[in-house]
Amino acid sequence: MSNAVNTAEAAAPTGGPEPILRARRLVKTFGRVVGLDGVSMELYPGEVLAVIGDNGAGKSTLIKCLTGAEIPDEGEMFLDGQQVHFKRPQDAREAGIETVYQTLAVSPALDVASNLFLGREERKKGILGSVFRVVDKKGMREKAKQNLSALGISTLQDVTVAVENLSGGQRQAVAVARAAAFGSKVVVLDEPTAALGVRETNQVLDLIRRLRDNGTAVIVISHNMPNVFDIADRIHIQRLGKRAATITPQSHSMTDAVAIMTGAAQA
């Protein structure tokens, strides 16, 4: 195994920007079950950080703590250098952290534009919006087109199409575009290529690259090692509730990563 990275704290950019999101020594227990055991993590602006680990390693618990779905028992979290205390997902969203879960949480019966603004519907200006609360469908559709275009999503030309008529990859694109539109700082993607074909997987990976190129920090949770090594700048490895290592695709191979993840080797 390469000696380029030999501690769990390594592989962080040196002399560069401060982390946009940082977790320090997070602890989360569920009765006698330890979900997180002093986990630290750093996410830098404009990077893709993959989080990998075996089942029960604490990946989901870590992400839930970072996005407000769980409250850590101990530890600290910082966003843009300021300490944050998320008590619910809405707190994280308002702070600029958007999450796309594996279930996507899109509404199949609604069209693309309505899904992008789901829960954030914009009303018409003037008395129609303020008094009669009329939704500005035309304005939302125009903004939806702009958001999709900014991310280079060319497979969704018609934003009036119901999501139930879209392919799996297109639905994923809608969910990611919604997160990108409102997640001004961090976008978290949970298994974004699960159950997708090769072509649609490549489209989603391209979408993640565009998010990064646009300066958005991205966390990707994935079991797909080839995808992880294709897309990630750094890889955070969870094992038994702890951070086993933080590596890069340049310093370690997929075999190395799996060995660290399973405990067969140390970084």
TrEMBL record:
<dbReference type="Pfam" id="PF00005">
    <property type="entry name" value="ABC_tran"/>
</dbReference>
<keyword id="KW-0547">Nucleotide-binding</keyword>
<feature type="domain" description="ABC transporter">
    <location>
        <begin position="21"/>
        <end position="265"/>
    </location>
</feature>
<keyword id="KW-0067">ATP-binding</keyword>
<dbReference type="InterPro" id="IPR003439">
    <property type="entry name" value="ABC_transporter-like_ATP-bd"/>
</dbReference>
<protein>
    <submittedName>
        <fullName>Sugar ABC transporter ATP-binding protein</fullName>
    </submittedName>
</protein>
<dbReference type="GO" id="GO:0005524">
    <property type="term" value="F:ATP binding"/>
</dbReference>
<dbReference type="InterPro" id="IPR050107">
    <property type="entry name" value="ABC_carbohydrate_import_ATPase"/>
</dbReference>
<dbReference type="GO" id="GO:0016887">
    <property type="term" value="F:ATP hydrolysis activity"/>
</dbReference>
<dbReference type="InterPro" id="IPR027417">
    <property type="entry name" value="P-loop_NTPase"/>
</dbReference>
<dbReference type="InterPro" id="IPR003593">
    <property type="entry name" value="AAA+_ATPase"/>
</dbReference>
<dbReference type="InterPro" id="IPR017871">
    <property type="entry name" value="ABC_transporter-like_CS"/>
</dbReference>
